[in-house]
Design brief:
By secondary structure, the chain is α/β, with parallel strands linked by helices. Helices cover about 40% and strands about 20% of the residues. The protein is built from 14 helices and twelve strands. It catalyses: 1,6-anhydro-N-acetyl-beta-muramate + ATP + H2O = N-acetyl-D-muramate 6-phosphate + ADP + H(+).
């Protein structure tokens, strides 16, 4: 029998380790920076035990943000720029990982694997592109080979394609992490992540997997951020100061809420390809509200995010439920206050009480998906794709 090549042998050795040190990387739709979570795993599937050893978000500089924004969610993107960014982001993320490890005084050789989400630059489920003959599609760039070669660490990346190949929309993948780390017998739970886009996982206390639902809900921070950039030259509404200085415009709010996406059956996914500045302006035109103040606009968009979440939860889940929030939007007090008022019977906390740092949750998710890719088995959760995801990149 021929021997395994050294990469495959190393892969098998890592997969069989009782304890694995992993780095999860997430760069989300808000483009604020790279989330880096250093985790330790033992076990797999429902027996997974994890601890977060370190976490940081390394902010992107303005030049990098502009470069990515030039192609992000744009149908007319410059293909050469996409090609360059695919390699560049891989190398750049690798540098940021090495920087974080140096700051933490950790030798890269002690890390078993990196699990990298990459940067989504376009998300096109059929519900969005509507082009006959084409499947659901999504594109994350920042190639794993560059990360593996530059860091010397086995890298698992490009998780979303398998989900699509097996019939999904490529998102939300939070489902797989939330089921493993977030469910509790006897307690109906919602894990709500408010990033650029808001998504949730419903985990019933009876652990009936056919009732589990994981779906995007609509915009989280993306429209609020877009309006802050356009009218206040600010990246986001820090501590909701702008929202609190404005008032809700009811005509605009009901126009925003009337978009057909909110009537579509879940699970469903979306992104800034739909929810963007042009979407806001079109709704303002239709509701005759182009003249409202920028403060009222930010306030109305914040109310829009909160209302879509409360409406979805009220319409779909039982009243006896606990909600655990994560993502940058969990710091938007206007949105969180509105959720508490809109869901008076729901106990709302953040995921920290579950031992999951709310800022780190998505980076932890990818580390966990990497652990499953190495040593898990596909888990059947209702009608969701029963798959292990991720592609392997070797350092040498
Ligand atoms: N103090 C704060 N006040 C208000 N909003 C905040 C605050 N801190 C963070 N945010 C919001 O959180 C956003 C960043 O959230 P996060 O990092 O979870 O997004 P993401 O991971 O890029 O998104 P996604 O999950 O959609 O991919 C910021 O752009 C901002 O809108
Ligand atoms: C295509 C894509 O990048 N989608 C992201 C985005 O950000 C939030 C929401 O939209 C979610 O569907 C997804 O990310 C998380 C990590 C997920 O897949 O669960």
């Amino acid at each position: 029998m021929l021997p395994l090549n050294h990469n495959l042998q190393k892969l098998v050795d890592i997969a069989r380790k009782d304890k694995k040190i992993a780095i999860g990387l997430m760069s989300g739709t808000s483009l604020d920076g790279l989330d880096i979570a250093l985790c330790r795993f033992s076990g797999n599937g429902l027996q997974t035990k994890f601890s977060l050893l370190q976490f940081t978000t390394i902010p992107y500089d303005d030049t990098f943000k502009q470069e990515v924004k030039a192609v992000f969610a744009r149908r007319d993107a410059d293909l050469e720029k996409v090609c360059l960014l695919n390699a560049y982001i891989g190398t750049y993320h690798a540098e940021l990982v090495l920087q974080a490890l140096a700051d933490w005084n950790i030798n890269p050789k002690t890390v078993d694997f990196i699990a990298s989400h990459g940067q989504t630059i376009y998300h096109a489920p059929k519900r969005l592109h509507k082009q006959a003959g084409y499947p659901n599609a999504t594109l994350q760039i920042g190639d794993g080979d560059h990360i593996a070669v530059k860091t010397g660490i086995l890298t698992i990346s490009d998780f979303r394609q398998k989900h699509i190949a097996a019939g999904g929309e490529g998102a939300p993948l939070a489902l797989y992490g939330d089921v493993l780390l977030g469910s509790k017998a006897g307690e109906n739970r919602i894990l709500l992540n408010i990033g650029g886009i808001a998504n949730l996982t419903y985990l019933p206390g009876d652990k009936d997997y056919t009732k589990i639902l994981c779906t995007d809900i609509g915009p989280g921070n993306t429209l609020i951020d877009a309006a802050c950039r356009e009218y206040f030259n600010k990246p986001f509404d820090e501590d909701s100061r702008i929202a609190y200085s404005g008032k809700i415009n009811d005509a605009l709010l009901s126009e925003l809420l009337s978009h057909p996406f909110f009537k579509e059956i879940a699970p469903k996914t979306t992104g800034p390809e739909l929810f963007n500045l042009a979407f806001i302006k079109a709704a303002q035109e239709r509701s005759n509200t182009l003249g409202i103040s920028a403060e009222d606009l930010v306030c109305t968009l914040s109310a829009f995010t909160a209302t879509t979440i409360t409406d979805f939860i009220t319409a779909n889940f039982p009243a006896d439920i606990k909600l655990f929030a994560s993502g940058g939007g969990a710091r938007n007090i206007y949105v969180m206050d509105s959720l508490m008022r809109g869901l008076p019977d729901v106990e709302i906390q953040d995921t920290a009480v579950l031992g999951i740092d709310p800022d780190a949750k998505e980076a932890i998710l990818f580390a966990l998906l990497g652990n499953e890719a190495l040593c898990g088995e596909p888990i059947k959760i209702g009608d969701n794709p029963t798959v292990l995801m991720g592609k392997f990149s070797f350092a040498g």
